[in-house]
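We now fix the convention by which a protein and its fold are recorded. These numbers are not coordinates but entries in a learned vocabulary of local backbone shapes. A record is reproduced here so that you can trace the correspondence yourselves:
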Amino acid sequence: MTLQTPPSRHETDRLVLRPFADGDWGQYADYHARPEVYAYLYAPPPTGDALREKFDRVLAARFEGDGDVYRLAVTVKAGGAVVGEVLLKLASRDALQGEVGYIFNPVHAGKGYATEAVAALLRIGFEAIGFHRIFARLDSANARSVAVVERLGLRREAHLIQNDRFNGKWGDEYIYALLKSEWMQRSNQGAALRGS
């Protein structure tokens, strides 16, 4: 079994997930420059040239080998605003493992965009790319992010105690995961309920 090339575009009821383009720079820079966005990423927000270089790497990213990242801008159909991004990191091609991640502009919080976009990315990861397992690593203090993965049915597999340190402060990490068989079973149950 091998992984497939991911689609370049995906739509949900309210969102369009697509590759970043040069014209997204301003909106990307806006939320990546916010300290609250990086509060749980164990890094300071990039600034100046470092921020532009980060964006340029996003534009040039490939998805072929371990460590590569498939990243999509999340835009709202009504108006086209970039509200954030979702990503799948190719954690292990041999083991068909992907790591899901997401970053959203807090200006658009509370509208369910993250849950809707991450659900779409899980569908892409399992049904289009062919991952066997997708996992998420989250700071245990990041209640909003934890709520997203729990709403989507990911299972907490681990609680790592003081496994990371940033600005002299230790942090805990949760590992959540979902298998393709679990995703498919849930998808089939949903389809059966919609058909009844």
User: Anything to note?
Assistant: Residues 10-195 form a domain with the Aminopeptidase fold (CATH 3.40.630.30). The beta strands are 10-11, 15-18, 69-76, 82-92, 97-104, 133-139, 155-166, 169-179. The chain has five helices and eight strands.
